[in-house]
Design a protein that fits this description.
Blueprint (H helix, E strand, L loop, with lengths): L1 E3 L16 E5 L5 E5 L7 E7 L3 E2 L11 E3 L4 E6 L7 E2 L4 E2 L6 E6 L6 E6 L5 E5 L15 E2 L2 E7 L1
Antiparallel strand pairs: 1-3, 2-12, 3-11, 4-10, 4-14, 5-13, 6-9, 6-12, 7-11, 8-10
Amino acid sequence: MEYKPFSTIKSEYPKLNGTTQKVSESFLNKVIIKDTRKERNGWKLQVIASPLISEDTFRLFPENTIKLKSISDVSQISGLKGIAPTIVNSEQFIDGQQFITLVSASEETGYGIYEMTFPSNALQLELNPAFAYVRQDGTPLKYQTDINWRVIPN
């Protein structure tokens, strides 16, 4: 099985104003999964994000800060037509302790090439001012996360 990684649109840093703010990002590309295994035992597309951590590594946002909307469309590009993979239909926090399943193809399905599309502003950050810090000189402190994707047999 193969999948093609993709990137997000970089947004402007939000101006902290003392209230909880939501920042959204959109994905530039579709997720592509190519399953040409003879076993045809299905697959799952899963994701997990590391906690938001400051560039100086001293500050950490709590879990359940990074949310991902469900995939809006799955299109089969090639392969034997069959039962379509199942989309998990809910927004989910992805910065917890375990991988979250986004799409699942059961046995006898998922063979071929599939394109998956996220809706606009699918990646959402909920920034609580209690955890957002600036440098001592008042300049913004950058935060980062790693989003890890995997495709596993079902």
